[in-house]
Amino acid sequence: MQSGLVIRSSSIHAAGCYTTRAFKKGDRVCEYDGPRFTKDQADERYADRSITYLFSCGDTGMVIDGFGSAMFINHCCEPNCETEEVEGRIFVCAVRDIAAGEELTYEYHLYDSDDAEGDCYCGAAKCRGTMFSKDELKRRARKATREAAKAKKTVKTKA
Ligand SMILES: [Zn+2]
User: Fold this and answer.
1) How far, in Å, is the centroid of ligand 1 from the Cα of 156?
2) E strand map for the chain
3) What is the residue extent of each domain of the chain?
4) Global confidence as pTM
5) Could you report the average pLDDT of every consecutive run of 10 residues in the chain (159 residues)?
6) CATH number of 5-158
7) 45 Cα to the center of ligand 1, angstroms
8) Measured in angstroms, how far is the CA atom of residue 11 from the centroid of ligand 1?
């Protein structure tokens, strides 16, 4: 366990990662560390699992299978942390001063997700209602339009 952090039950989702001491804006709070896989390897490994803690690492096509405190950090639409990639390593950094006892959060920006739903219940005033990134929402909208068009065609050929 990283120093200054503790895992306990969260009001956002299941377990969360809380601070036991204050952090300053810009501090690296912890590292998102764990074994690395390619996206395909991870899909194969976790085909039957609904909950995973995979972190996509930039454009490398690699994912990190979260292990340690960072995997418990929940998504929030008004987060107090952000993730920073430095030479293939992912660090969770404070975007503002964080007091002892606060729950740590960052935006997941889920993309290329196979999950049907990514609804957000973070409770922030500016909650976007989803954990998907803007690009993912666009991708899903396009897919829905395509499927609607396909459905229409099918109806036509049947008629
Ligand atoms: Zn939210």
Assistant:
1) 41
2) 5-9, 15-19, 28-32, 36-38, 54-57, 62-65, 74-75, 81-86, 89-94, 105-106
3) 5-158
4) 0.81
5) 84 88 96 90 84 79 87 94 91 97 92 78 92 90 90 68
6) 2.170.270.10
7) 29
8) 13
